[in-house]
Design brief:
Length: 310
């Protein structure tokens, strides 16, 4: 097996990376291989990666080439991370000496947050019209579950009927790296799911059946969920485009504003690092100021008298 193939197999088997991440890494390394091929005068990039050509100078040239393509800083950072991880793997396997990407500074990717819904906007979206007659129960259950449990869209569409525990009001989620977690389901979301399964889905609850189906009777795709949210946000008259990730971010932020513990939110979101959770839980500075003014004994506004000369 070529070095890239064995590296991707290592990521899949030993690190349990998601298929989407594996595809991204494969594309990044394929682009690097094409650049190596062009550096040695091959029109199509040659076959695989010639490890003898890899030097710090060449890696710098590759990254400089990428910067001319107008890529976002986040994309550049991911491609650089793919190279660094690939070289580190080759070091452990004894196929490469040193890591040419180890000393390179990572490009500063801006930490953009998705649009945040207010509580009123979330309620208006969930309770409002705009749902298709053919799939209104399914679509409402999708929105309720996204906002109730903060699932990633990939986690949502991967759910099976047997993953929903109605008596315990939890859902079993398979997250990144195939890690499983149990996430609470709110009463409104549980009601919407029950209505969908009994009145529209008419499921027997057999283990392994997809929870959300498209109109053809097969598992719903993430792209379909994105289209659903885009249509509903247009129906609301919002100029910004609503995404499943915006509901996930709103879920986390509203929990934090309501007093939920950050560690509990981290567990529900399925984050390995608490710092990742903190990016999702932005609290409006006005709310912080208002809370401070209500609670702190020295915050009450009083008339300030000028000091007198003694």
């Amino acid at each position: 097996m070529d070095p890239v193939g064995s590296f991707l197999e290592h990521l899949r088997v030993e690190r349990n990376l998601s298929p989407a991440t594996l595809r991204a890494y494969a594309a990044d390394l394929e682009q690097f291989a094409a650049f190596l091929g062009s550096a040695r005068g091959e029109d199509e990039g040659g076959e695989g990666i010639d490890l003898s050509l890899i030097t710090l100078k060449l890696v710098r040239s590759f990254l400089a080439h990428l910067s001319t393509l107008g890529l976002q800083p986040s994309s550049l950072a991911r491609k650089q991370a793919a190279l660094r991880s690939f070289f580190r793997y080759l070091n452990r396997e004894g196929a490469l000496e040193g890591n040419p990407a180890k000393t390179l500074p990572s490009p500063g990717a801006p930490k953009k947050l998705p649009p945040l819904l207010t509580v009123d906007e979330a309620f208006r979206l969930l309770d409002g019209p705009g749902f298709s007659k053919k799939s209104r129960h399914r679509d409402r259950a999708i929105l309720e579950l996204l906002y109730s449990s903060g699932l990633r869209v990939g986690e949502l569409v991967s759910l099976d009927v047997g993953d929903v525990d109605f008596p315990g009001r939890v859902v079993r989620v398979r997250g990144k790296g195939r890690r499983e977690r149990l996430v609470p389901v709110g009463s409104k979301a549980a009601q919407a799911l029950s209505r969908y399964l009994t009145e529209e889905r008419r499921s027997s609850g057999v283990e392994g059946q997809p929870l959300f189906l498209n109109l053809r009777g097969t598992r719903l795709s993430a792209r379909s969920v994105n289209r659903l949210l885009a249509a509903l946000s247009r129906h609301q008259g919002w100029k910004r485009r609503l995404t499943p990730h915006a509901l996930r971010h709103s879920f986390a932020t509203h929990l934090l504003s309501g007093g939920a513990d950050l560690r509990a939110i981290q567990e529900m979101l399925g984050h390995r690092s608490l710092s990742t959770t903190q990016r999702y839980t932005r609290v409006n500075i006005d709310q912080l100021t208002e809370a401070y003014d209500r609670a702190h004994p020295r915050s009450r506004k009083k008339a300030v008298r000028p000091l007198k000369d003694t």
